[in-house]
Structure formats: structure tokens, C-alpha cells
Records
---
Amino acid sequence: MTITSPLWGAELDHIRLDSADPAKLSAFYRDAFAMARQPLADGSILLRGAGRRLIIGTGAASSQPYSAFRFADQARLATYKAHLTARGVNPMPSPTPLFADGAFAVADPDGRQMVFGLINDTYDVEDETVGRHPPGRLQHVVVATANLAPMMAFYEDTLGFVATDHVLRDDEDDHAGGQTLTAVFYRSTPEHHSFAMFLSDDARPDHHAYEVSCWNDVRDWADHMATLEIKLWWGPGRHGPGNNLFFMVEDSDGHKVEISAELENMADDDPVRQWPHNERSLNLWGPGWMRV
């Protein structure tokens, strides 16, 4: 089987985080994740490192208004836009300055925007300090939702994300052995996931992640956090879904941020796998972050 989704090949380029104190939050990412800080014309702040970009604006603390996925060329972007239009989706103007003309956004059932476009060369020029920063490519973003079924229908059937793994919780009151789906991992490239969602009691950000090359990079990032007296919030460990090494920290607004290494790649014909909703699935090495 060859994956034929028109979304295939799109990669996570950047996300936006809003904060009641964007100066403080941007200073955190500048230091903790070794990013150069640049003010933008609309008052927001661009953070840039090697393979990673993040926009921070003014808004509710720890909110994440949009995620932006880039296509390789104009033809693929146009094909994808036509695919969405044929499904009755009305594209909205792009909210990000980091994409070139022709970018557009769509809103998911929780009201969060997903943006698709091509890189704007104006913001793709690295300053002389960026290349000296540690590696850490922005790789995936995860959200929480109380509306898992409509969100799945939108991300799979409309947007074309490919499901990789499901996490299922046994229903204790269901004597017939029923289960509740509590998490779904999606890919848009061979990497295990570029987007995922967890069942929760409300719609909110869950975390975003920077992918490094190996276990030694995980160690070096943890040592870097230690020099700044930033405590590890979770980990180090190894996830079941994705099989990646990881640790997480909290930013100054309480948003979870992950350093990840060795995320597995999937073959086109790999079926959706199922994992039990337990600590071992979330962390093969130890305690898990149990969302629900």
C-alpha cells in the first residue's frame, strides 16, 4: 500500500504560543532552547534555532492558537488546497508571517487553526548565532480535546493525517469488555507522528517537541537545562508509541516542552497499532503522565 493523502510530505514548521507576558516567555525559549529572538511587525516575537521556529504573541497564558505545516513546493500546496475545498472546507487567511503568499488556515472542531503554506524567505535567513546552537528540530505538536471523535474525523477524513497508534482504556463498568479511545498519533511523513491528540475534559495544548539525533543529545540538552536550573518535569524515559527517548520541561507559562530522540519511522503499509492506556505505554522506563 502506498499512502496517497495529499497532505503526505507536509512537515511541522512552527507553532504559535500566546502569553500574558510574552517578553518573559520568549526569554525562556531564548535561553532554554537556544533560540535567537526577533521582534515582528505585528508585535509578536519570533524565536529561531537550527531547525526550529516558534512565534510568541500576547494572549491567554499557555494557549496555542495555531500550528503551521510547510509543503515542499507550490504545486503540492495548490493540490492540497483543492482537496480541502472539494470537501467543503473554506480556507481562511493565514495568521503567520513566516509563510509566503498563498498560505491559508483552517479551523478544527475545537477552534484551533492549522496553517499550510510555503516558507517565506524573508524569515528563513539564519543569523550568525543560530548555527552555533545545539540541534533540535521542531518535530511534533500535541493537543488535548474533549471531542475526540469529531476531531479524529476532521484530522483523518478532511485533513488527511494518517493514524499510526491508538491508546485504549478498558471501561471498568462495561462487562462486555468495551474500551475508550484516549489518544491518537498521526503522521504526515514516515516519522511516527507530527501531530497527536489526547482525550481530556477540555480543549487545550498538551506539548510540543524538538527532535535531536541521539541519546547523547538528550544528555547534553538535560545538562543545558541544569545550567539554567530548569528541572526536568518528566523523564528521562522512553515512550511506547513512537519508541522515542525523551524528557520534558515546563516553560514559564506551564506549557510542556519535550526533547525527543530516535522517533521511529513507519512503513506505508504499517497498520494502526493499539496500546493499553497505562503508565507503561506512556513511559516504558517508569512513571507516566496520565492525562485522564
---
Amino acid sequence: MPPDDVVQKLLDAIAAADDDAAETAAQAMANRAELLPALRPLLADADSDRRWWGVRALALVGGPEAARLSEERLADADEAIRCAAALGLGHLRAARAVPALVARLADASGWVRDSAADALALIGEPALAALTDALADPRDAVRVRAAGAVRKIVIPGLSGLRIAAYPPTYRAAIEALYRALNDADRLVRHNAYETLDRLRLFETVWVVEP
């Protein structure tokens, strides 16, 4: 089906307020990078529903250009679109977007902060160094989300490994989590404790540099 026809199906579904049909139309765009030129006008549309579905489609189209366009929408005025952009970047495993997603850990919307943290967790190890740095951020909201994302990356990434086999980025994260046990925020301490406990690191000696 020609690109314009595929996008028109999405536009018709949006106009009819039929989310199921819109999702079906978006799914038909999967892995079709040739649709990007036809999708770009939706991303700048004055109507927030059209922008949201444009961002949703980008996550399905995939590829570097879709990731770049999604990253731009992290600054959208509508929080739902910022959330969709963040989660789309997570599903695309867009490592290039890590700095922009870390910046959204301080978004005015808690919904967006949570979505950015979930996206960083989906990106995984490429996001770990930036998240480790974020554990030292002076803002509680940033540290809480960073600690949660680190937990989601580190536990599956290290479970079953001997400490000597921990990659350097993971070792740095573990050291930051030990320091976070003294964090002023209860949720940061909880995430740090749960991660270290699940990895059974309270049963060994680990020297943490101050």
C-alpha cells in the first residue's frame, strides 16, 4: 500500500476517535521507514491526538531517523506526547537518546518522569553510566527514578555472575548503590537496598571509594 494511503488510514481512524482502528493502522507501519516523510506533518500538527499517534507510529516504524524524530518530541508541550516519545525511544533501544531521557527525569510531570525512567531501563546497559551519575543529582525526583531504572537493569544483568565478572559500568553502578543506602530519600534507599539484596551483595565485602 502506498505510504500516503497507509497514513490516511491512521488519520481517518483518529478523526473517528477510534483508537482500536488507529492502533491497527499504526501497526501496519511497522518497519516501513519509507513512511517517515508522510508522518512528519503529524508530528508538528496543532492537534495533540494527531501528534500522539504520529509519535506512536515512529516507535513501530523504527530506525535511526524515527528515533531522532521521537527525541524531538520529548520537548512537546503535551505530557502524553512526551510520555509516548520516551517510551517509544525505550522500545527502540535508542542509546543516542539517553542524555535527553535523563533530562526528562526532572520533567514537571511525574508521568513523564516515570516514562523516561522506564525507557532508560529498556535501553539497558548503554544508559547505565548516565543513570549512575544521576544517582548523585541534588533533586530527589531524579534520584528516585534513576535508582529504580538502575535496579531494573542491574538485577537481570548481573544475576548469576561472579563479582569478578561484573563489567566496569555495572561495578560503578553497584558502588553508587552502596552510597545510596545513605540517601536522604526513602525510595532511593529502598531501590538501592533491594538491588543489592537481590544480588546477595550484603553477603560479601565490597570496598566503596568515597
---
Amino acid sequence: MNIDIEDTKFLLNKNILITGASRGIGKCLALNFSKYGANTILLSKDEKLLDQVYDEIKSKYKTNPMIITCDLYNLDENYCQEITNSIQKTYGNLDALINNAAIVEKLSTIENYDLETWEKVIKVNLTSSFLLSRFLLPILKISEIPRIIFTSSGVAKKGSSFWGAYSISKGGIKILAEILKDEVETTSKLKIFNFDPKATRTNMRAHAFPAEDPLQLKKPDELIKYYLWMLSEESSGSENNYIEYED
């Protein structure tokens, strides 16, 4: 990864949509991308927290962020078209979509997994990523270095007991990223990446592993160099679309 992370103009005037931007890795990406000059489009269902991230960006950086308040569980085709229209009207194009938002909800055996939770996790983690990717493709393809970056997990590669719908959703994301790679990379400039950040200090990690000491985990800031590389011209020649954080 031969990129200059000290270059504060690395993402100058890039327009980047981040789901789950109100906390955790998403918030970290929003602040750091703004530091590098990007116009960050902040999507989350928590309007109060989004406002705080927006205000912090406006007070620190000379960029043009946008807030999209959206519960991904309720995302449908009409709202996706509204999001696309709003981004195109404000910025003209989109340079990157970071499908970051995800929920675990519960750890349970399949025998005891209720349908309501199953459907919620699949909709938030997988279906919303499909919908946003599908509708935003036209305004991504007109970018000079367009990217879609999905967020993976160790349970995407091999199913493990109790991970239920979360593991299924991440496995689905892996396949979705591979399908998109085959469909768009040979006919456009668009690159598709699926990034596994591995164990990171977030609220979702704490929920899934309550006995774990969070101080032993890396902070989200340590992931930034990977995202900058994926968003860079250097990554355009990469044949590998599954990227993992290296300890």
C-alpha cells in the first residue's frame, strides 16, 4: 500500500456515502474522509448522532457533508431513488459507496432463532446493500475512480454456531461483491471491494463479545489506511476484491 496518508488532499472533492455513519467504524470513516477533503454523505437512522457528526465535520473541515436519515430496515426502491436523485442534484456524481452498517441483534441457535429478528438482520445487513448498490451504480460509473466497498466478517467465510442471520448476511455480502465484480469491472472503471476489518473496538463488537476487554482491540482509526488504499488509483489494478486487516 504505497499511498501517502499524510496528504490531506488525498480525497479532495470526492463524494462518499457511508452507511452507519453515526457511530463506530462509520463515524470514524466520515471524520477521516472529511479530513482528507471528501464530501461525506452520512446515512444512519439516528438523526441526533448524525447531527453531531455533521457539526464536527463542519467545524473542522472545509467540506460539504450531507445527512440522510434512514432506517435501513425500511429502505425500499422509492427511497433509494430519492437518495440517488438527492446525491446527483447536490454533487453531480458519487465516487464511493461504503456499505458499512450492520446489526447482530442476537446470538442464538437456528432452532431458537425467531423469524422477525432473522428478517430484520437480513434486511439491514444484506438487502439494503443490494438496493443501494443497484440504485447508485449509474452515478458511480461517471466517477473517475469509482468504488463500492462492502464490510465483511470472519463469519462470512465459514458458518459458526449461534451467529445465525448475521453470518448468513455477511456470507451473502461476500457473494454479492463477487457477482458485482464480475458484472461491472470489465465494462467500467468501477472497483468492488469486500473488506474484513477483523476485531475492532465498536459497540457492536462489545454486544457480540461482552466478556472481551475492548482495550485489547484496535481502534477504528487503524483501518483508515486500508480504506484510503481501496479508494486510491493504486488499487485499480488489484485482482483481489476480498481485503483483510493484517495484524
---
Amino acid sequence: MNLLTRINDNMPHFSKGQKLIANFITEHYDKAAFMTALKLGATVGVSESTVVRFASELGYDGYPKMQKAMQEMIRDKLTSVQRIQVTKSRMEGADVLTNVLNQDIEKIRRTIEETSRGDFNAAVKAISKANTIYIFAVRSSAALASFLGYYYSLIFENVKIISNYGETEIYEKLFRIDKGDVIIGISFPRYSNAAVKAMTFAHRRGATVIALTDSMTSPLCSLSDHILIAKSDMASVVDSLVAPLSMINALIVATVVELDDEVEKTFGSLEHIWEEYDVYRSKSEGENT
């Protein structure tokens, strides 16, 4: 039973204060989802304890559980304008730098807690054995695909990055995908329809599907063999990619460990090429300037 249904069913039994909370959530749940119990109470004119009791009355084990239910309800429904409004509300009177960095720290902490080690290890093994690795991401997530693709292209021979293409081009890039291949699909709220369609196509072709997304409620999860959860922030004016990038770093490191001597040999050859063609500035050059 979702939150709005619980509110509707219990409305006749609410006190005057509880009805104020109920009406505000019903009409403004996109804003209420990111308010503390204290702020929600102050907004509707009731005490913090009334808000906490309201959550309990609805069957939630504390206000944070009800708040999470509100956030899940709007996970992919916030428009850009609503994101700006919520961000302004959350940052009002705050030290923006400290606030944003602390929120990113919290996302990494939650990512550590919520990611399945079994899924992570299985994903690394599947990637290491794949004939071809496809990395799919569009819009702001395309930056993640580019980063992961850069390092995997150094480690593996067959890596294909698919990002920011038209729908027809996407299937042209994917049409050879098969059972021995892996696709890593990356998408965060607001979820991309293109990502869902691409993952569906790969799933039907028998490829191993790995989702890098923010929640088990993501539309990518039902299509995936392995799910990597990295927390994002659907209510920020920008998509927070800190935790997803940390997850990608972990994937790259784990892949290097899995392949061991093979990767070391590859990078040894690359170092010779980089040195021969003067790719990186040497220390002596820096000292002379």
C-alpha cells in the first residue's frame, strides 16, 4: 500500500494537526519528501512530535521510513524546475560547499551499505570473461561511460561505448551483441527510456546484463543479471555522480586484480609506447621550466 493510499484510508481518523500534514503531503509530496520532521511540522503549523506520531499512525517505523516512502514515490518524477526549487529549499541559509560535500559523503556511505558484494564480484568475473564489453549511458551519465570505457579499452581489446546516439544508431551499435557478451547499463533518475530499451534488447539477445543504478526500484533492475547500487540525488539541480564514479573505480580496480599478470603485461607495453611517443611530461622537463 503506497503512502497516498494509507493517507486516504486513515483521513477520517486523523486529528486536526494530522490532517494538516496529510493535506500538505498529498498536495506537495515532492517538497515534503526532503523535509525533516521539524521543518515539515513548522511548514504546516504543528510540532515535530505530531509529525513523528503521524508517521507511526500510518504504520511506518519512525519518520525516516515515511520520508523514504515519499522519496521512492517521486523517484523519477521530479522535473528540472522542481529540482531547482527543492535544491533552493534544502540549501536555504546553509554553507553550500559543506552541505553538498557532506551529502556526497553520505551517498558513498549508503552505497557501501547497499551494494551486494556477491553481485559486485559476479559482475567483475563476467566482465573479465566477456567476448565484447558494451557500456551504455546517455545524458549526464555519459560521462561515466566515457571514464569506464577509457580504462576498460586499455585493459580489453573489445570495448564499445554507446552514449548520446539516436535510437536507430543505438540498435546499430548493439545488433551484434550475443550470449558471450556483457553490457553495463548506467542510468539514474530521471531514468532514460533509451537505457531501458537498450538493456531490454541486450537481455533478449542473451547477453549478461549489469546495471549501475541507484535503487532496486530502478527499471533497469528487472532486466539485469547483476545489480550495482550507487546512490545518486534525484532532488539536486545537478545529478550527483560521486558514488557512481566510486563504484566504477572499484570495478576497474577489481578487474585489474582479477586479471592480474595479464593486465600488468598490457600496461607494461603501454608504458613503453607512452615513453617512446612522449605522451606524458617527464620530471626533468618540469624541473627545467
